[in-house]
Amino acid sequence: MMTRPLLMRNIAFPVALAATVLALVLAGCAREKSPSPEEASLAYLAQNDGYWKAWVSDVDGEGARLLTKDELDVSRISWFPGGRELLVNFQDGRLFRVDVASGERTVIQTQMPGIQDAVISPDGKRIAFSYGVNESTYDNDVWMLDMASGEHAKLTSTPGLQHDPAWSADGEWLYFLSGMGGQFHDIWRLKLSDRSMEQVTVNELYHFDLSLRDDGTIAYSGNRNGNYDLWLRHPGGESEALTNDVALDARPAWSADGRSLIFESTREGGLDLWKLDIDTRQIARLTKTPDGARMPVVAVHGANE
Asked: Which residues contact 286 (CB under 8 A, 6 or more apart)?
Protein backbone atom coordinates (compact mmCIF):
# COMPACT_ATOMS: atom_id res chain seq x y z
CA MET A 1 0.00 0.00 0.00
CA MET A 2 2.87 2.35 0.70
CA THR A 3 4.48 1.82 -2.71
CA ARG A 4 1.55 3.15 -4.72
CA PRO A 5 2.11 6.90 -4.00
CA LEU A 6 5.78 6.48 -4.95
CA LEU A 7 4.80 4.82 -8.22
CA MET A 8 2.43 7.67 -9.01
CA ARG A 9 5.14 10.24 -8.30
CA ASN A 10 7.52 8.41 -10.64
CA ILE A 11 4.96 8.51 -13.41
CA ALA A 12 3.93 12.10 -12.76
CA PHE A 13 7.46 13.48 -13.01
CA PRO A 14 8.17 12.45 -16.63
CA VAL A 15 4.66 13.48 -17.63
CA ALA A 16 5.15 16.92 -16.08
CA LEU A 17 8.58 17.21 -17.71
CA ALA A 18 7.18 16.30 -21.10
CA ALA A 19 4.41 18.86 -20.69
CA THR A 20 6.96 21.52 -19.79
CA VAL A 21 9.13 20.70 -22.79
CA LEU A 22 6.08 20.77 -25.09
CA ALA A 23 5.01 24.14 -23.70
CA LEU A 24 8.48 25.56 -24.33
CA VAL A 25 8.49 24.24 -27.89
CA LEU A 26 5.07 25.69 -28.58
CA ALA A 27 6.06 29.02 -27.05
CA GLY A 28 9.13 29.11 -29.26
CA CYS A 29 6.98 28.42 -32.30
CA ALA A 30 4.59 31.21 -31.29
CA ARG A 31 7.50 33.66 -31.02
CA GLU A 32 8.85 32.71 -34.44
CA LYS A 33 7.49 35.27 -36.89
CA SER A 34 9.28 34.37 -40.15
CA PRO A 35 7.31 31.73 -42.03
CA SER A 36 8.80 28.37 -42.91
CA PRO A 37 8.37 27.18 -46.52
CA GLU A 38 5.29 25.23 -45.42
CA GLU A 39 3.73 28.39 -43.92
CA ALA A 40 4.82 30.93 -46.54
CA SER A 41 1.56 30.79 -48.43
CA LEU A 42 1.60 34.38 -49.63
CA ALA A 43 4.17 36.35 -51.58
CA TYR A 44 3.80 39.92 -52.77
CA LEU A 45 5.65 43.10 -53.69
CA ALA A 46 6.11 45.95 -51.22
CA GLN A 47 8.18 49.10 -51.16
CA ASN A 48 11.52 49.00 -49.34
CA ASP A 49 14.16 51.73 -49.67
CA GLY A 50 12.37 53.10 -52.72
CA TYR A 51 12.12 49.81 -54.65
CA TRP A 52 9.43 47.20 -55.15
CA LYS A 53 10.81 44.05 -53.52
CA ALA A 54 9.52 40.52 -52.95
CA TRP A 55 8.16 39.60 -49.52
CA VAL A 56 6.71 36.39 -48.07
CA SER A 57 4.24 35.87 -45.23
CA ASP A 58 1.56 33.49 -44.09
CA VAL A 59 -1.73 33.55 -45.95
CA ASP A 60 -3.18 36.25 -43.65
CA GLY A 61 -0.24 38.60 -44.14
CA GLU A 62 1.33 37.88 -40.74
CA GLY A 63 5.05 37.33 -40.21
CA ALA A 64 6.12 39.25 -43.33
CA ARG A 65 9.74 38.78 -44.34
CA LEU A 66 11.82 40.54 -47.02
CA LEU A 67 13.06 38.10 -49.66
CA THR A 68 14.87 40.22 -52.26
CA LYS A 69 17.16 43.09 -51.26
CA ASP A 70 18.41 44.36 -54.63
CA GLU A 71 18.26 48.07 -55.41
CA LEU A 72 16.10 47.26 -58.39
CA ASP A 73 12.36 46.86 -58.84
CA VAL A 74 10.86 43.39 -59.02
CA SER A 75 8.19 43.42 -61.72
CA ARG A 76 6.63 39.95 -61.35
CA ILE A 77 6.68 36.95 -59.03
CA SER A 78 5.10 33.50 -59.15
CA TRP A 79 5.33 30.35 -57.02
CA PHE A 80 7.04 27.20 -58.16
CA PRO A 81 5.00 24.05 -57.42
CA GLY A 82 5.19 23.09 -53.76
CA GLY A 83 5.46 26.63 -52.39
CA ARG A 84 9.17 26.47 -51.56
CA GLU A 85 10.58 28.66 -54.33
CA LEU A 86 9.62 31.83 -56.18
CA LEU A 87 10.23 32.82 -59.76
CA VAL A 88 11.37 36.44 -59.57
CA ASN A 89 11.33 38.66 -62.66
CA PHE A 90 13.28 41.91 -62.19
CA GLN A 91 12.47 45.09 -64.07
CA ASP A 92 15.60 44.71 -66.18
CA GLY A 93 14.31 41.36 -67.48
CA ARG A 94 16.47 38.99 -65.44
CA LEU A 95 14.92 35.83 -64.00
CA PHE A 96 15.85 34.07 -60.76
CA ARG A 97 14.70 30.98 -58.90
CA VAL A 98 14.68 31.98 -55.22
CA ASP A 99 14.53 29.61 -52.25
CA VAL A 100 12.02 31.04 -49.76
CA ALA A 101 13.65 29.57 -46.65
CA SER A 102 17.27 30.55 -47.31
CA GLY A 103 16.95 33.39 -49.80
CA GLU A 104 19.48 31.66 -52.04
CA ARG A 105 18.82 32.15 -55.71
CA THR A 106 19.77 30.64 -59.03
CA VAL A 107 19.85 32.64 -62.23
CA ILE A 108 17.68 31.31 -65.04
CA GLN A 109 19.70 31.66 -68.19
CA THR A 110 18.01 33.16 -71.22
CA GLN A 111 19.25 34.73 -74.44
CA MET A 112 16.37 37.22 -74.50
CA PRO A 113 17.01 40.47 -72.61
CA GLY A 114 14.03 42.41 -71.32
CA ILE A 115 11.67 39.56 -70.41
CA GLN A 116 8.54 40.69 -68.56
CA ASP A 117 5.40 39.14 -67.04
CA ALA A 118 7.23 35.84 -66.34
CA VAL A 119 5.07 33.14 -64.71
CA ILE A 120 5.96 29.51 -64.02
CA SER A 121 3.74 26.68 -65.27
CA PRO A 122 1.80 24.44 -62.83
CA ASP A 123 4.33 21.62 -63.40
CA GLY A 124 7.31 23.94 -62.90
CA LYS A 125 8.83 23.06 -66.28
CA ARG A 126 7.94 26.08 -68.43
CA ILE A 127 7.89 29.84 -68.11
CA ALA A 128 5.45 32.01 -70.04
CA PHE A 129 6.40 35.64 -70.54
CA SER A 130 5.87 38.79 -72.58
CA TYR A 131 8.57 40.04 -74.91
CA GLY A 132 8.94 42.77 -77.54
CA VAL A 133 11.56 42.89 -80.26
CA ASN A 134 11.56 46.68 -80.40
CA GLU A 135 11.34 49.46 -77.82
CA SER A 136 7.59 49.98 -78.16
CA THR A 137 5.56 48.80 -75.17
CA TYR A 138 2.61 48.28 -77.53
CA ASP A 139 4.28 45.63 -79.67
CA ASN A 140 4.77 42.62 -77.41
CA ASP A 141 4.02 38.94 -77.90
CA VAL A 142 3.70 35.98 -75.56
CA TRP A 143 6.58 33.51 -75.47
CA MET A 144 7.45 30.33 -73.59
CA LEU A 145 10.75 29.08 -72.16
CA ASP A 146 11.40 25.37 -71.64
CA MET A 147 13.31 25.09 -68.34
CA ALA A 148 15.09 21.83 -69.24
CA SER A 149 16.24 22.60 -72.78
CA GLY A 150 16.48 26.39 -72.55
CA GLU A 151 14.57 26.68 -75.82
CA HIS A 152 12.27 29.64 -76.46
CA ALA A 153 9.04 29.48 -78.45
CA LYS A 154 7.01 32.42 -79.73
CA LEU A 155 3.36 31.70 -79.09
CA THR A 156 1.64 34.76 -80.57
CA SER A 157 2.32 36.92 -83.61
CA THR A 158 -0.49 39.42 -83.32
CA PRO A 159 -0.28 43.18 -83.87
CA GLY A 160 -0.46 45.25 -80.70
CA LEU A 161 0.22 44.33 -77.11
CA GLN A 162 -0.01 40.69 -76.00
CA HIS A 163 0.98 40.34 -72.36
CA ASP A 164 0.21 39.21 -68.79
CA PRO A 165 0.02 35.44 -69.42
CA ALA A 166 -1.73 33.18 -66.91
CA TRP A 167 -1.72 29.36 -66.86
CA SER A 168 -4.76 27.13 -66.59
CA ALA A 169 -4.55 24.71 -63.65
CA ASP A 170 -3.83 21.74 -65.94
CA GLY A 171 -1.15 23.64 -67.89
CA GLU A 172 -2.88 22.97 -71.20
CA TRP A 173 -4.05 26.54 -71.86
CA LEU A 174 -2.32 29.87 -71.61
CA TYR A 175 -4.54 32.91 -71.10
CA PHE A 176 -3.29 36.40 -71.93
CA LEU A 177 -4.40 39.97 -72.60
CA SER A 178 -4.47 41.52 -76.05
CA GLY A 179 -5.02 45.11 -77.12
CA MET A 180 -4.21 47.60 -79.86
CA GLY A 181 -3.95 50.61 -77.58
CA GLY A 182 -7.58 51.70 -78.00
CA GLN A 183 -10.55 51.39 -75.66
CA PHE A 184 -10.61 47.58 -75.62
CA HIS A 185 -8.24 45.16 -73.95
CA ASP A 186 -9.60 41.65 -74.17
CA ILE A 187 -8.87 38.18 -72.81
CA TRP A 188 -7.60 35.48 -75.16
CA ARG A 189 -6.46 31.93 -74.60
CA LEU A 190 -4.08 29.65 -76.46
CA LYS A 191 -4.13 25.85 -76.50
CA LEU A 192 -0.52 24.76 -76.21
CA SER A 193 -1.00 21.39 -77.91
CA ASP A 194 -1.89 22.87 -81.30
CA ARG A 195 -1.31 26.64 -80.78
CA SER A 196 -4.95 27.43 -81.61
CA MET A 197 -6.31 30.66 -80.11
CA GLU A 198 -9.74 31.69 -78.86
CA GLN A 199 -10.99 35.15 -77.94
CA VAL A 200 -12.67 34.95 -74.54
CA THR A 201 -14.03 38.53 -74.30
CA VAL A 202 -14.98 40.85 -77.14
CA ASN A 203 -14.98 44.64 -76.82
CA GLU A 204 -15.75 44.68 -73.08
CA LEU A 205 -13.42 47.59 -72.27
CA TYR A 206 -10.28 46.87 -70.27
CA HIS A 207 -9.32 43.61 -68.60
CA PHE A 208 -6.21 43.17 -66.50
CA ASP A 209 -4.57 40.85 -63.97
CA LEU A 210 -5.87 37.40 -64.86
CA SER A 211 -6.01 34.63 -62.26
CA LEU A 212 -7.37 31.14 -63.05
CA ARG A 213 -9.15 28.85 -60.60
CA ASP A 214 -8.98 25.06 -60.99
CA ASP A 215 -12.48 24.94 -62.52
CA GLY A 216 -11.57 27.53 -65.18
CA THR A 217 -13.20 30.54 -63.50
CA ILE A 218 -11.21 33.68 -64.31
CA ALA A 219 -10.76 36.45 -61.77
CA TYR A 220 -9.63 39.79 -63.17
CA SER A 221 -9.75 43.56 -62.81
CA GLY A 222 -11.99 45.43 -65.23
CA ASN A 223 -13.61 48.81 -65.74
CA ARG A 224 -16.99 47.94 -67.27
CA ASN A 225 -18.74 49.84 -64.45
CA GLY A 226 -16.49 52.88 -64.68
CA ASN A 227 -14.04 51.94 -61.93
CA TYR A 228 -11.44 49.19 -61.83
CA ASP A 229 -13.24 46.51 -59.83
CA LEU A 230 -12.85 42.75 -59.36
CA TRP A 231 -14.78 40.51 -61.75
CA LEU A 232 -15.35 36.82 -62.37
CA ARG A 233 -15.66 35.19 -65.77
CA HIS A 234 -17.38 31.84 -65.29
CA PRO A 235 -16.64 28.83 -67.53
CA GLY A 236 -20.05 29.25 -69.15
CA GLY A 237 -19.16 32.78 -70.28
CA GLU A 238 -21.09 34.82 -67.73
CA SER A 239 -19.36 37.81 -66.15
CA GLU A 240 -20.00 38.85 -62.56
CA ALA A 241 -18.82 41.93 -60.67
CA LEU A 242 -17.43 41.17 -57.21
CA THR A 243 -16.67 44.72 -56.04
CA ASN A 244 -18.01 48.18 -56.77
CA ASP A 245 -15.78 50.81 -55.25
CA VAL A 246 -14.36 54.12 -56.48
CA ALA A 247 -10.95 52.90 -55.35
CA LEU A 248 -8.68 50.68 -57.44
CA ASP A 249 -9.28 46.94 -56.94
CA ALA A 250 -6.73 44.92 -58.91
CA ARG A 251 -4.39 41.90 -59.10
CA PRO A 252 -6.71 39.21 -57.69
CA ALA A 253 -5.08 35.91 -56.66
CA TRP A 254 -7.07 32.80 -55.79
CA SER A 255 -6.63 31.24 -52.37
CA ALA A 256 -5.47 27.62 -52.28
CA ASP A 257 -9.05 26.40 -51.68
CA GLY A 258 -10.55 28.67 -54.36
CA ARG A 259 -13.02 30.22 -51.91
CA SER A 260 -11.48 33.69 -51.63
CA LEU A 261 -9.36 36.22 -53.48
CA ILE A 262 -6.44 38.23 -52.22
CA PHE A 263 -6.05 41.49 -54.11
CA GLU A 264 -4.51 44.94 -54.05
CA SER A 265 -6.66 47.99 -53.37
CA THR A 266 -6.54 51.68 -52.54
CA ARG A 267 -9.91 51.59 -50.73
CA GLU A 268 -8.43 53.11 -47.56
CA GLY A 269 -5.99 55.45 -49.25
CA GLY A 270 -2.69 53.63 -49.71
CA LEU A 271 -2.16 50.56 -51.86
CA ASP A 272 -2.39 47.42 -49.70
CA LEU A 273 -3.56 43.81 -49.76
CA TRP A 274 -7.11 42.74 -48.97
CA LYS A 275 -9.05 39.47 -48.87
CA LEU A 276 -12.49 38.88 -50.39
CA ASP A 277 -14.66 35.91 -49.45
CA ILE A 278 -16.43 34.83 -52.65
CA ASP A 279 -19.57 33.50 -50.92
CA THR A 280 -20.19 36.21 -48.33
CA ARG A 281 -18.49 39.09 -50.19
CA GLN A 282 -16.90 40.14 -46.91
CA ILE A 283 -13.64 42.06 -47.35
CA ALA A 284 -10.82 42.24 -44.81
CA ARG A 285 -7.55 44.15 -44.92
CA LEU A 286 -4.40 42.00 -44.71
CA THR A 287 -1.50 44.48 -44.81
CA LYS A 288 -0.85 48.00 -43.58
CA THR A 289 2.42 48.93 -45.21
CA PRO A 290 3.94 52.43 -45.03
CA ASP A 291 4.63 52.68 -48.77
CA GLY A 292 2.36 50.15 -50.44
CA ALA A 293 1.93 46.43 -51.17
CA ARG A 294 0.72 44.85 -54.37
CA MET A 295 0.73 41.82 -56.69
CA PRO A 296 -0.14 38.98 -54.27
CA VAL A 297 0.47 35.35 -55.30
CA VAL A 298 -0.65 32.35 -53.24
CA ALA A 299 1.30 29.10 -52.94
CA VAL A 300 -0.40 25.76 -53.46
CA HIS A 301 1.56 23.56 -51.06
CA GLY A 302 2.67 20.15 -52.22
CA ALA A 303 1.09 20.51 -55.68
CA ASN A 304 3.17 18.91 -58.47
CA GLU A 305 6.28 18.85 -56.28
From this structure: 60, 61, 262, 272, 273, 274, 275
